[in-house]
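Record type: monomer structure entry
Structure origin: computed from sequence
Chain ID: A
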Amino acid sequence: MRKSQLLARIQNEREEWEHVLNHVGTIRFGIGGVSGHWSVRDILAHITAREQYMADRLYEVQQGTSLPACQTQDELDTFIEEFGYPDFESPILPEQQANEWAVIKYRDLEFKDLVDLEIHVFEVLHENIMALSEEQLNENNLAERLARVTYQHYQQHTADILKRFKTPLKR
């Protein structure tokens, strides 16, 4: 996929994602049972951590470096200490555990601060995609990885959210 196509797809799906969040209304963001026991707020924390992880990996690619996935618990612990989030691509870290980590990390963050952080992280992710060459995007399988972290992720959670909140918030 060409970078321009990828960016357009991510932006279009992002706009739909934000529309779904508006459908829910911030007053209902804390209600659980949306995706398993998670609330929309928890989903937002989870997406924030995943997008931050990816934004940092893109920056590494731009710099001509990239970290291999953590293969031991010591490497994983060092990674978390250095970056402030787990290595989501590590084969030794169960996905459910990584996802719960993100929810717990941001649980005490004020809601407005979480929203601001998520918007900022998405902007950094977008800037880092823009800075990549077509070659970098293709040789590192980044288009597929970016799809999983952004628009496929939004679609997955959109389905959960709309199933839980069938009607938009009346304002």
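Annotation 1: Residues 40-63 form the longest helix (24 residues).
Annotation 2: Helices lie at 3-24, 40-63, 73-83, 95-106, 111-131, 134-139, 142-149, 151-164.
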